[in-house]
Every structure is written in C-alpha cells, then in structure tokens.
Design brief:
The protein is an alpha+beta fold and 304 residues long. 31% of the residues lie in helices and 18% in strands. A hairpin with a 2-residue loop joins strand 5 and strand 6.
Length: 304
C-alpha cells in the first residue's frame, strides 16, 4: 500500500464546484483537477462550531483514517479510489474518485416495496462481494445503508463513506452508526469490539427495508438492544408475513440480536442468495430499478 499524496491547499490543484451533499462530520463537494480535467469528490471536514477543540481535532483524525482505510482497500471493486489528502480553506479534506450513478435510496423510491427477489438478491449479493474484500482487509464498515450505496448506470453497486470504519476487534468507546442499520453491539460501549457480522446485520436491515419497508425491531435503539418492554419483535406480524418466503429465513438470521447466531461471513450470506441471482443472458425484471442492479449478474460471473 503506497502513501497517499498530500497536496496541501487543494484549490491550487482542483477547481471546487458545487456542494454535492453534507453530513454530521463533513461536506462533499464536486471538484475538477486542473491539469487533467478529472472529476473528483472532495470530502471536507465541517467547520468548527461550538464543540470543544479536541472534538474537532478527533474528527480531523477520523477523516484522515478514512482516507487510509480507502487506500488500504485500493483495487477493491466497488470501493472508490482515493487520490490525495489536502486542505480546503484550512479544513482537512480527502480527494476521491467521483462515482457517477444514482443513490440506492433514490433508485428505490419508485418501486418500494421491492417484490422481485432477483432484484433484492442482486443488491445484497453485490454488497456481499464488496464487503468480503473489506472484511478480509480486517475492516468493518459500520455504516452500510442505502444512503451509502450508489448504483452505476450499468447496474454495478458501489459502497462508499468509510467514515465509521474500524479495524475488526477494535473496542467501541462511543455508540455510533445509523439507527435501524447498526446492530446492538455497535450501539453500546463494547470493549470486545465488533466483527464483520455488524455489517451483516446492516445488510439484513436493508433487505427488510427494501421488501417490507420497515427496519427490524422498530428501528429504535431500545428495540434493537432489547430494552423495550415488552421486548420488540423483529417485525410486526403483518410485516413478518410479507417477507419474501425465499429470503425470510436468511433475513431473520442476519438481524439476530446475537452476532453469534448470524451468518458467520458475507460469503455465507452470498451462498444463500446465489440461487436467486440472475444468470448471464437472462431477462431483466418486469419492474426493474433504474439503474437496474440485476444487470450486473446478467453480464458478469460472481466473484464469490
């Protein structure tokens, strides 16, 4: 793994255009490299507000770590490349590959709930292929969700935003993640750390949200960690019955509160999905997403 180039003030190298998105820790801009015209995504740390300076510095360190993790995954299909570290108006930033496509969240809007099992399997299956590389690099993503997934025009899935990624087994000092996708072990202080099974829980939550439009355990912290009284079931009876029967047993295992009862690896999840994937040369679904994630497996052989 090579060192990431630090280019200092990025405005000397890139023209920064419009704001593309923002979150709790950073803003994402579209930029163009002056020498080549290459389009890039520039993730810039948010300006310091009322938080203590040490907290602001921690966020800067986390952005640097995100860049290092992306570099560690260099060459992984489905993970955007990193080009450089730098500063934008004295704020820490990283410059990455810009992904052309549609957020999965937006692609799902017109077809939810997704009734086509092949479509669901194609989305979760591609994410399993990506996360297999992530987990074999001893990393856990910790924020797998539709807002962090892009569908390219050819149906290829890309997973981005490694801002919460950690090394597997690293202890958790502060709860983190997106409610409804983060597993119980990620929502508590956890000195034992977490494994790739945290990402498997998130994939199961995605599967449920796509097919029955509800996240497990009511999507609340109390429900997920089992502190509700009475204890929250994984889904209300009507939604549970609506899960596709071909995928229901797998989905329920994936979101078990106990990581030891979940599938051990994303490869195990993929193997369960394999019979439901489209085969090369097959027809697209009657009501495809646009872009259509099934196109990937209709034109590619799985890598797992």
């Amino acid at each position: 793994m090579g060192l990431i180039k630090n280019i200092g003030d990025i405005e000397e190298t890139y023209d920064i255009h419009k704001l593309a998105g923002s979150g709790g820790q950073a803003e994402l801009y579209i930029g163009y490299e002056r020498s080549s015209g290459r389009k890039a995504a520039v993730k810039v740390q948010n300006e310091q507000g009322f938080e203590p300076t040490y907290h602001f510095e921690i966020l800067a360190k986390e952005l640097t770590e995100e860049g290092e993790y992306i570099q560690k995954l260099s060459g992984t299909p489905g993970i955007p490349r990193i080009f450089a570290f730098g500063r934008y108006r004295n704020l820490r930033c990283i410059v990455m590959e810009f992904i052309e496509g549609t957020l999965l969240t937006n692609a799902l809007e017109s077809v939810r709930p997704v009734r086509n099992v092949t479509t669901v399997a194609s989305i979760i299956g591609q994410l399993c292929e990506i996360l297999d590389h992530v987990h074999h690099s001893n990393l856990v993503h910790r924020d797998v969700k539709p807002d962090n997934v892009m569908v390219e025009p050819d149906g290829c899935i890309r997973l981005f935003d490694l801002g919460l990624a950690v090394e597997a087994g690293a202890g958790i000092e502060f709860p983190c993640g997106t409610m409804g996708f983060a597993p119980p072990e990620q929502l508590n202080v956890n000195p034992k750390g977490i494994t790739g099974q945290a990402d498997i829980f998130a994939l199961g939550s995605m599967l449920m949200e796509m097919t029955v439009m509800q996240r497990p355990y009511g999507g609340t912290r109390a429900g997920i960690i089992g502190k509700d009284h009475p204890v929250q079931p994984v889904l209300p009876p009507g939604r549970l019955a609506a899960l596709p029967p071909e995928l229901a047993p797998l989905a329920l295992r994936m979101v078990d509160r106990d990581p030891g009862r979940r599938p051990a690896t994303v490869r195990e999840v993929f193997d369960a999905l394999r019979p439901h994937l489209p085969v090369p040369g097959s027809c697209r679904p009657r009501k495809p997403l646009r872009p259509d994630p099934t196109e990937y497996y209709r034109t590619h052989t799985p890598t797992l």
